Amino acid sequence: MTSATAAHSVVEPSATTRRLAGSLVVLYAIITMIPLVWIMLTAFKSPDDAISYPPKVMFKPSLEGFCNLFTTRSRQTPEFIRSLGPPQGLCDSIARERNMVVAGPSNYVPRFVNSLIIAFGSTVLAVTLGTLSAYGFSRFRVPLKDDLLFFILSTRMMPPIAVAIPIYLMYRTIGLSDTRLGMILLYTSVNVSLAVWLLKGFIDEIPREYEEAAMIDGYTRFQAFVKVVLPQATTGIAATAIFCLIFAWNEYAFAVLLTSGNAQTAPPFIPIIIGEGGQDWPAVAAGTTLFLVPIVVFTVLLRKHLLRGITFGAVRK
Amino acid sequence: MAEVEINAVSKAFGKLQAVTDLSLTIGNGEFVALLGPTGAGKTTALRLIAGLEQPDEGSIRIDGRDVTGDAPADRDVAFVFQQYSLYPHLTVFENMAFALRAPIRRMPEADIRAKVQDVARLLHIETKLDNKATLLSGGQMQRVAIGRALVRSPSIYLMDEPLSSLDAKLRGELRLELKRIQVDLGATILYVTHDQTEAMTMASRIGVIEGGRLMQIGTPREIYENPINAHVAARLGQPVINLLPAGLFAGAPHGAETIGARTEHLTIARGGGDVSATVKRVEHLGDQSHLHLDLAGRPVVTLADPEAAFGAGEVVSLRLNKPLFFDAKGRRVAA
């Protein structure tokens, strides 16, 4: 449609309205991006630049934050450092300028791996369970269907932290405290209600004639579900998976409470990175920046499915 | 292909009685049409045979085997849905190959390709095989939907108003093609429709269904010429049969309350008939005209030769010519 006809259309917004709306969206996007940009800038500052006042926008970039994130260091006398051989890599030379040597790797990588396993594990589990139960609710006569659906939704009605103490005690008793499995189960139980509700909406939209046709054509119901329903529910599954992943990835309160040395995820670890004389802000910012990467990658990978229109045209209504 | 026998089948959905005591045998190679209005239970009858619904009572046998409790996949039937139901994520070829690729069939891929191409040629969609199913026109989609059933050689093809969502011209073309294909393949078909033309032109037998009950079954000619009641008579014929009080004409047999007069039962002239009527309106269809008459306050619709040039307000005379007679309950009364 040309802009000339759009301007005269009753349903299409006018060019001015669209420009105004567009500017507002861009403005909002810039405002929300400022903290993110600031974190990324801080990640490349030296500790002194990070806390300088007034804040520095122009600064000499440094990888000290990333080095401090991935290593632990110990302070030594200048005589001792001079007696050592040449520095071992970039981080060691940065450390030696501050009279320190790299003592070993930090816990960031194991925490990050915990986050990956727990978040993706619980997402896969929540989406799988959610898809199967949503299909059941959508297609079968389930006794007390509406009550069950309401009950599932009601688990989201109170703040999850309200049950923190019972869960803490329960997990300690059954040995799930500070285990990856415990965290996967916990995040799955929170996410599965969201998954059921979101996916039921998507599956309701898929006409049942598709499965009926497949079942008449020689497929079992489960085969028809896999061959016909799942491919058409990809949009919904992708959207649901992103929501579940973001929750599990960012969750902080339960992670602080239930994990420590073994299954601790990145969110409780990042803010307690301590440098000499207080918080090591560049290292915290570096940890946060890297922590954003998996979510961004996952969302970009699934973007195609999110944007693709839901099935239309093959069934006349 | 096989004989399909439906035996005293009933099905209710909650309080709604969809099909009542339906008995019907479809012979091998026969084309049976179930004709009835929306909500008459036609589709439910098909779904019962396909196994998509379980009957409350009665049994269904295919080729002598009782399939009443079998899953749809085990019945060896093919279904053409009213709304195409093509899989939007698959191409035309994949849609048509879908049934053949079912794990229970284990058909070699080369055979599948050959079979799909055969059927695609038959339906004139061989150039569309690589298209996404959703990118076709309505007529092409319906051909694919029919093709998806034709690639198989099931006991029976069940077709649920497959042509109803097409425009009139396409419907006419596909009607002819479908009949040609049925004759070529010797296929057994149960075809559900509310369109009397489809039923009359394609079916070897027509079953008229109303309110979940099978009212009459017979050849198109029998159903048209010898309807057992006024309902069945009203289902066939264009324009619809005129049902008039028997008292308007002399010579009705004993017990007849209603006269059923189709166009061919009415001789219309300027004077010399049994009764006179006033022309209210003339609809010119080109080769014919619909004449709307007023007969003692009753509307009567009949066809007339446009050459006769009747005009609104004109008084004409009508003569009955072997009409149908029905009693107070609508049952047929012999003349």
UniProtKB/TrEMBL annotation, chain A:
ABC transmembrane type-1 domain location: 112-302
Main location: membrane
Presence of the UniProt keyword Transmembrane helix in the record: yes
Cellular location(s): Cell membrane
Signal peptide positions (record): none
Keywords tagged on the record: Cell membrane, Membrane, Transmembrane, Transmembrane helix, Transport
Pfam families the UniProt entry points to: BPD_transp_1 (PF00528)
The keyword Transit peptide is assigned to this record: no
Cited InterPro entries: BP-dep_ABC_trans_perm, MetI-like, MetI-like_sf
Lineage top rank: taxon: Bacteria
Transmembrane stretches, start-end: 20-41, 116-137, 149-171, 183-203, 224-249, 281-302
Topology with respect to the bilayer: Multi-pass membrane protein
CDD domains, sorted: TM_PBP2 (cd06261)
Family of the protein in this entry: Belongs to the binding-protein-dependent transport system permease family.
Name of the featured protein: Carbohydrate ABC transporter permease
Lineage: Bacteria, Pseudomonadati, Pseudomonadota, Alphaproteobacteria, Hyphomicrobiales
